Amino acid sequence: MARSVTSYDQAAQLRGLREQGWCAFEGFFDGAENEGMVLRLTALLGGREVDSLTGLGCTVFSLLARDPGFGGYLGRSDILSFCARALGVPERGPRLCRTGARLSGPACGERLEWHHHQGELQQALDERERFERLLVLCYPLGSSERIGPLVVRSRAFDDPLESAPRDPFAPLAGEQALEVTPGTAVVIDAPLLHAAGRGSESVLRLVWGAQLQAAGDRTAHPDDDPLGERWRATRRRWVASLRGTGTE
Ligand SMILES: [Fe+2]
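Above: the input record for the complex with fe (ii) ion. Below: its predicted structure, written as C-alpha coordinates.
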Protein backbone atom coordinates (compact mmCIF):
# COMPACT_ATOMS: atom_id res chain seq x y z
CA MET A 1 0.00 0.00 0.00
CA ALA A 2 1.22 3.49 -0.82
CA ARG A 3 2.52 5.32 2.21
CA SER A 4 2.08 8.86 3.37
CA VAL A 5 4.95 11.00 4.61
CA THR A 6 3.18 11.21 7.94
CA SER A 7 3.76 7.47 8.43
CA TYR A 8 7.50 8.16 8.68
CA ASP A 9 9.29 9.82 11.56
CA GLN A 10 9.58 13.22 9.87
CA ALA A 11 11.80 14.69 12.58
CA ALA A 12 14.25 11.82 12.05
CA GLN A 13 14.08 12.29 8.28
CA LEU A 14 14.80 16.02 8.61
CA ARG A 15 17.65 15.22 10.97
CA GLY A 16 19.07 12.77 8.41
CA LEU A 17 18.82 15.38 5.68
CA ARG A 18 20.65 17.85 7.88
CA GLU A 19 23.31 15.48 9.19
CA GLN A 20 24.10 13.47 6.04
CA GLY A 21 22.62 15.49 3.17
CA TRP A 22 20.00 12.90 2.25
CA CYS A 23 17.12 10.89 3.63
CA ALA A 24 15.15 8.01 2.15
CA PHE A 25 11.41 7.37 2.29
CA GLU A 26 11.63 3.61 1.88
CA GLY A 27 8.81 1.95 -0.02
CA PHE A 28 6.91 5.21 -0.38
CA PHE A 29 5.15 4.28 -3.62
CA ASP A 30 3.26 1.02 -3.82
CA GLY A 31 3.48 -1.76 -6.41
CA ALA A 32 0.77 -0.33 -8.68
CA GLU A 33 2.39 3.10 -8.61
CA ASN A 34 5.79 1.61 -9.36
CA GLU A 35 4.35 -0.32 -12.29
CA GLY A 36 2.73 2.84 -13.61
CA MET A 37 5.97 4.78 -13.34
CA VAL A 38 7.93 2.02 -15.11
CA LEU A 39 5.41 1.97 -17.96
CA ARG A 40 5.49 5.75 -18.35
CA LEU A 41 9.28 5.89 -18.21
CA THR A 42 9.87 3.06 -20.66
CA ALA A 43 7.37 4.70 -23.05
CA LEU A 44 9.80 7.60 -23.23
CA LEU A 45 12.31 5.26 -24.88
CA GLY A 46 10.06 5.15 -27.93
CA GLY A 47 10.61 1.45 -28.50
CA ARG A 48 14.37 1.46 -28.02
CA GLU A 49 15.77 -1.60 -26.25
CA VAL A 50 17.57 -1.23 -22.94
CA ASP A 51 20.74 -2.70 -24.49
CA SER A 52 20.83 0.12 -27.05
CA LEU A 53 21.39 2.75 -24.35
CA THR A 54 25.01 3.84 -24.12
CA GLY A 55 26.99 6.55 -22.33
CA LEU A 56 24.73 8.32 -19.83
CA GLY A 57 21.71 6.54 -21.22
CA CYS A 58 18.51 8.40 -21.99
CA THR A 59 18.15 11.69 -20.12
CA VAL A 60 14.72 13.28 -20.16
CA PHE A 61 14.26 16.96 -19.38
CA SER A 62 11.00 18.70 -18.52
CA LEU A 63 9.45 15.38 -17.56
CA LEU A 64 6.17 16.87 -16.39
CA ALA A 65 5.70 18.63 -19.71
CA ARG A 66 6.48 15.35 -21.50
CA ASP A 67 4.14 13.35 -19.29
CA PRO A 68 1.96 15.28 -16.84
CA GLY A 69 1.05 11.94 -15.25
CA PHE A 70 4.17 12.19 -13.12
CA GLY A 71 2.62 15.23 -11.46
CA GLY A 72 0.07 12.85 -9.96
CA TYR A 73 2.81 10.87 -8.21
CA LEU A 74 4.43 14.01 -6.86
CA GLY A 75 1.06 15.43 -5.89
CA ARG A 76 -0.13 12.22 -4.25
CA SER A 77 3.01 12.05 -2.27
CA ASP A 78 2.89 14.66 0.44
CA ILE A 79 6.63 14.44 0.18
CA LEU A 80 6.35 17.95 -1.23
CA SER A 81 5.08 19.20 2.11
CA PHE A 82 8.07 17.58 3.79
CA CYS A 83 10.36 19.42 1.37
CA ALA A 84 8.47 22.69 1.92
CA ARG A 85 9.16 22.34 5.61
CA ALA A 86 12.88 21.77 4.99
CA LEU A 87 12.91 24.72 2.61
CA GLY A 88 11.43 26.92 5.34
CA VAL A 89 8.03 27.50 3.72
CA PRO A 90 5.73 24.87 5.28
CA GLU A 91 2.65 26.95 4.64
CA ARG A 92 3.37 27.76 0.98
CA GLY A 93 4.81 24.62 -0.55
CA PRO A 94 7.85 24.29 -2.78
CA ARG A 95 8.41 25.66 -6.26
CA LEU A 96 9.00 22.99 -8.90
CA CYS A 97 12.10 24.13 -10.79
CA ARG A 98 12.96 21.08 -12.80
CA THR A 99 11.65 17.61 -13.46
CA GLY A 100 13.48 14.90 -15.31
CA ALA A 101 14.42 11.26 -15.60
CA ARG A 102 17.33 9.09 -16.53
CA LEU A 103 17.04 5.64 -18.03
CA SER A 104 20.18 3.57 -18.35
CA GLY A 105 21.21 0.00 -18.93
CA PRO A 106 24.03 -2.52 -19.06
CA ALA A 107 25.75 -0.92 -22.10
CA CYS A 108 25.97 2.49 -20.40
CA GLY A 109 29.08 3.86 -18.69
CA GLU A 110 30.17 2.05 -15.56
CA ARG A 111 29.63 5.14 -13.43
CA LEU A 112 27.74 8.38 -13.69
CA GLU A 113 30.27 11.06 -12.81
CA TRP A 114 30.42 12.72 -9.40
CA HIS A 115 28.43 15.92 -9.32
CA HIS A 116 26.30 18.13 -7.14
CA HIS A 117 23.45 20.50 -7.94
CA GLN A 118 24.47 23.52 -5.95
CA GLY A 119 24.99 25.68 -9.04
CA GLU A 120 25.43 29.40 -8.44
CA LEU A 121 24.08 29.12 -4.92
CA GLN A 122 27.46 27.95 -3.66
CA GLN A 123 28.74 31.41 -2.74
CA ALA A 124 26.15 31.59 0.01
CA LEU A 125 26.51 28.00 1.26
CA ASP A 126 28.18 28.94 4.54
CA GLU A 127 25.55 31.61 5.21
CA ARG A 128 22.39 29.63 4.57
CA GLU A 129 19.97 29.06 7.40
CA ARG A 130 17.65 26.61 5.65
CA PHE A 131 17.86 24.22 2.72
CA GLU A 132 17.75 26.24 -0.48
CA ARG A 133 17.31 23.56 -3.10
CA LEU A 134 16.28 19.95 -2.68
CA LEU A 135 16.01 17.05 -5.09
CA VAL A 136 13.41 14.31 -4.85
CA LEU A 137 14.69 11.17 -6.59
CA CYS A 138 12.19 8.37 -7.16
CA TYR A 139 13.29 4.80 -7.78
CA PRO A 140 10.38 2.66 -8.98
CA LEU A 141 12.71 -0.35 -9.31
CA GLY A 142 14.86 0.51 -6.31
CA SER A 143 18.56 1.27 -6.10
CA SER A 144 20.98 -1.61 -5.64
CA GLU A 145 24.20 -3.15 -6.89
CA ARG A 146 22.07 -5.30 -9.20
CA ILE A 147 20.21 -2.37 -10.76
CA GLY A 148 22.89 0.26 -10.27
CA PRO A 149 23.04 2.17 -7.00
CA LEU A 150 22.83 5.84 -6.17
CA VAL A 151 26.24 6.61 -4.64
CA VAL A 152 26.61 9.47 -2.18
CA ARG A 153 29.33 11.13 -0.18
CA SER A 154 27.40 12.24 2.85
CA ARG A 155 27.85 15.78 4.12
CA ALA A 156 26.39 17.72 7.02
CA PHE A 157 24.40 20.90 6.44
CA ASP A 158 27.30 23.13 7.55
CA ASP A 159 30.10 21.31 5.76
CA PRO A 160 31.99 23.24 3.09
CA LEU A 161 31.12 22.44 -0.49
CA GLU A 162 33.13 19.58 -1.92
CA SER A 163 33.74 19.73 -5.65
CA ALA A 164 33.80 16.71 -7.92
CA PRO A 165 37.21 14.98 -7.85
CA ARG A 166 39.72 15.35 -10.67
CA ASP A 167 38.70 11.94 -11.94
CA PRO A 168 34.91 12.26 -11.68
CA PHE A 169 34.40 8.55 -12.34
CA ALA A 170 36.76 7.24 -9.67
CA PRO A 171 35.43 5.87 -6.38
CA LEU A 172 35.82 8.27 -3.44
CA ALA A 173 36.88 7.35 0.08
CA GLY A 174 33.80 7.33 2.29
CA GLU A 175 31.34 6.93 -0.56
CA GLN A 176 28.17 5.03 0.19
CA ALA A 177 26.12 3.01 -2.28
CA LEU A 178 22.49 3.37 -1.25
CA GLU A 179 20.40 0.24 -1.41
CA VAL A 180 16.72 1.14 -1.39
CA THR A 181 13.62 -0.89 -2.11
CA PRO A 182 11.37 -0.32 -5.16
CA GLY A 183 9.17 2.74 -4.73
CA THR A 184 11.60 4.61 -2.53
CA ALA A 185 11.90 8.38 -2.76
CA VAL A 186 15.24 9.83 -1.73
CA VAL A 187 15.49 13.52 -0.85
CA ILE A 188 18.93 15.08 -1.24
CA ASP A 189 20.39 18.49 -0.47
CA ALA A 190 21.68 20.21 -3.65
CA PRO A 191 25.35 20.38 -2.50
CA LEU A 192 25.50 16.62 -1.83
CA LEU A 193 28.17 15.06 -4.01
CA HIS A 194 26.67 12.02 -5.69
CA ALA A 195 27.17 9.58 -8.55
CA ALA A 196 25.54 6.36 -9.69
CA GLY A 197 26.73 2.93 -10.63
CA ARG A 198 25.83 0.68 -13.53
CA GLY A 199 23.94 -2.41 -12.52
CA SER A 200 25.56 -5.82 -12.37
CA GLU A 201 22.72 -7.37 -14.35
CA SER A 202 21.20 -6.69 -17.73
CA VAL A 203 18.31 -4.65 -16.40
CA LEU A 204 16.95 -1.17 -16.89
CA ARG A 205 17.87 1.43 -14.28
CA LEU A 206 15.22 4.08 -13.76
CA VAL A 207 15.23 7.26 -11.77
CA TRP A 208 12.98 10.27 -12.10
CA GLY A 209 12.47 13.27 -9.93
CA ALA A 210 12.27 16.96 -9.33
CA GLN A 211 14.30 19.87 -8.06
CA LEU A 212 12.60 22.23 -5.66
CA GLN A 213 13.15 25.64 -4.17
CA ALA A 214 11.05 27.55 -1.68
CA ALA A 215 7.92 29.17 -3.10
CA GLY A 216 8.82 32.77 -3.72
CA ASP A 217 12.55 31.98 -4.09
CA ARG A 218 13.13 32.98 -7.69
CA THR A 219 16.92 32.46 -7.55
CA ALA A 220 17.87 31.20 -11.00
CA HIS A 221 19.75 27.92 -11.23
CA PRO A 222 21.52 26.38 -14.23
CA ASP A 223 19.50 23.16 -13.77
CA ASP A 224 16.11 24.84 -14.09
CA ASP A 225 13.94 23.55 -16.90
CA PRO A 226 14.41 26.08 -19.70
CA LEU A 227 11.17 27.51 -21.02
CA GLY A 228 12.07 26.45 -24.57
CA GLU A 229 12.67 22.87 -23.48
CA ARG A 230 9.34 22.77 -21.67
CA TRP A 231 7.64 24.07 -24.79
CA ARG A 232 9.36 21.48 -27.00
CA ALA A 233 8.42 18.70 -24.56
CA THR A 234 4.79 19.83 -24.57
CA ARG A 235 4.82 19.94 -28.37
CA ARG A 236 6.24 16.39 -28.55
CA ARG A 237 3.43 15.24 -26.30
CA TRP A 238 0.80 16.86 -28.47
CA VAL A 239 2.27 15.35 -31.62
CA ALA A 240 2.42 11.91 -30.00
CA SER A 241 -1.18 12.12 -28.83
CA LEU A 242 -2.31 13.20 -32.32
CA ARG A 243 -0.51 10.18 -33.75
CA GLY A 244 -2.07 8.07 -31.03
CA THR A 245 1.29 6.59 -30.08
CA GLY A 246 1.50 8.01 -26.59
CA THR A 247 5.20 8.62 -27.16
CA GLU A 248 7.20 10.93 -29.39
FE1 LIG B 1 22.36 14.44 -9.82
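Notes for the reader.
The first helix runs from residue 10 to 20.
The pocket of fe (ii) ion is lined by residues 115, 117, 194 (CB under 6 Å).
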